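Thread: Outer membrane lipoprotein-sorting protein, structure

OP (GT): Posting the sequence first so everyone is looking at the same thing. Length is 238 residues per the record. Can we get the structure tokens written out before standup tomorrow? I want them in the notebook alongside the other entries.
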Amino acid sequence: MKKLFTTALALALTSTALHAQAPSPQLTDVLHQLDTASAKFHNVQSDVSYDNYTRVVRDHSIETGTIYVERSGKGQQMGAVFFNSTPDGKPTKSPAKILVYDGSTLQMYSPGTNQDDVFKAGANQAKYESFLTLGFGGSGSDLAKAWTITYDRNEPLSDGTKQVNTAKLILVSKDPGVSDMFTRVTIWVDPQRGISLKQLFEQPNGDSRTTTYSNIRLNEHIDTKPYEISKKAQHIPH
């Protein structure tokens, strides 16, 4: 059950270890900047694109949508809406999946089947939220608690409006259950704002998911209506 919830949350968002022994000056500086940015973080909204790669058939499937992450007195909250792509590469009109995390429960709703899969976090809430904070307001100190980190390099990436000098960090989970699912996670993070522009989750079988974020809005009002799950949905507890 614990592993099933972790997998679900990782897929919703969906993340060579020297840090514990001898962190580089560059890594120390990035983590300090993330600590500073985290103190100012309230929420973030973004357009998102997922490139899901299946190694056996060498196939890429693309999902696009929007996502938000918000910090409140209840902890981390998240909403995401995903659309499949048509043959010409455009998103379908109706969402294929809606995900909502309220700080204790993750819901994965499929409008096509009207099925809502419900996963309880329970005592593992902090561990599961480590995925949410990989690039959305998480502090550098919390990142170092959950992941063994290697600083790779600085790399410029576009956030859809401008070039950002990101820090490329390679992460290996300190939780065996997570590392069994993902051999490593690479994030390209803007340490000034404490948000990711890109994430790469690599699985032991060679499959991977590359996530890119654009049109990023930090600490603005969030309209949660697009992320609402139908009241007539069939709820399936896990």
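GT: Both are above now. Quick notes for whoever picks this up: The domain at 25-229 is CATH 2.50.20.10 (outer membrane lipoprotein receptor (LolB), chain A). The two ends are 7 Å apart (CA to CA).
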